Predict the structure.
Amino acid sequence: MSNPADNEGQSVQEGFVILEEAVDQAIDQLSTMSERIGLIEAKNTELAKLVEQFTGDELEADRIVTQFRELEAENTELRDRLVRGREGVDRLLTKIQFLENH
């Protein structure tokens, strides 16, 4: 017969494994996002210079770059919503897996 204390210890250990995987995934995502932010900032600077060269007007270049940055911010917000949605789904799946095992 199985010992309930053993099952409980095993469930806790499985929970820690799942938690560790989630933390590792979050760290990887943060690292990736930091790299992407650096690339985006460099591209924004390059874009501002190019727009100014083509328009010959610094104010027009600023307006276009500002509009571009607003679109990027909106895009980032939408991506963040997707990430939060995925995290919610992951939490639900974890709860379902936990309940299935008990």
